[in-house]
Amino acid sequence: MSDRLPRPASPAPRDAAAPRPASSPPSRRAFLATTARTAGVVGLAAACSGCAWFHKKDIDVRAAPEATSIRLAFADHAALKTPNGFVRVSAQDGDLRILVVRLADGRAVAASMECTHWGCDLDWSDARGDFECPCHGSRFDPAGKVLEGPADDPLPTWPVREDADGLTIDLAPT
């Protein structure tokens, strides 16, 4: 008699193309691919958190698509009577987004509220008296001139007429 135990039979070779049973965990390759895709999506969202897509401001006034000018009555927009007060305006079906600001010196200006760098909506800085981009730090003076980059191009501006009852913005850029 032999002290040897019989050898178990070798398992049959597995067909690589055969699907895995539903209860088995994903392969290492599938797990790593899914993890990499998820990390890529999260990374892209984090990278774009400062981009224009995430920095659109609410609009206060929407002009009719065919409008050639916009009337802003002081009775409806009291902020335009106060230094550093502003109103956000959308015109031409949203193609024009304009920030109308009453400057500290009493003048009113109308400039694009979209940064010429990547299109983020600008904020008005009371302290500095300029337009500031929250995405990448560009700054523009009230006339639209670039004060600080990365933006290279000035902001489009529109003429503003004032009377006792309000402001009128002519939509032909200056």
In total, the number of domains comes to: 2
Give the topology string: H per helix, E per strand. HEEEEEEEEEEEE
Strands in their spatial order, largest beta sheet: 1-3-4-5-10
Number of helices: 1
General form: elongated
The structure class reads alpha+beta
Query: How much of the residues is beta strand, in percent?
Result: 25-35%
Describe the structure.
- With 174 residues, the protein is α+β, with helices and mostly antiparallel strands.
- The protein has 2 domains: 26-54; 61-170, Rieske Iron-sulfur Protein, CATH 2.102.10.10.
- The chain is 11% helix and 27% strand.
- The protein has 1 helix and 12 strands.
- It has one helix spanning 28-47, and strands at residues 61-62, 69-73, 86-91, 96-102, 108-112, 123-125, 130-132, 139-140, 146-148, 157-158, 160-163, 166-170.
- The chain has a 5-stranded mixed sheet, with no helix packed on it. Strands 6-7-8-9 form a 4-stranded antiparallel sheet, with no helix packed on it.
- The longest helix has 20 residues, at 28-47.
- Mean pLDDT is 79; it is low at 49-55.
Which structural traits does this protein have?
27% strand; alpha+beta; 2 domains; Rieske Iron-sulfur Protein; 1 helix
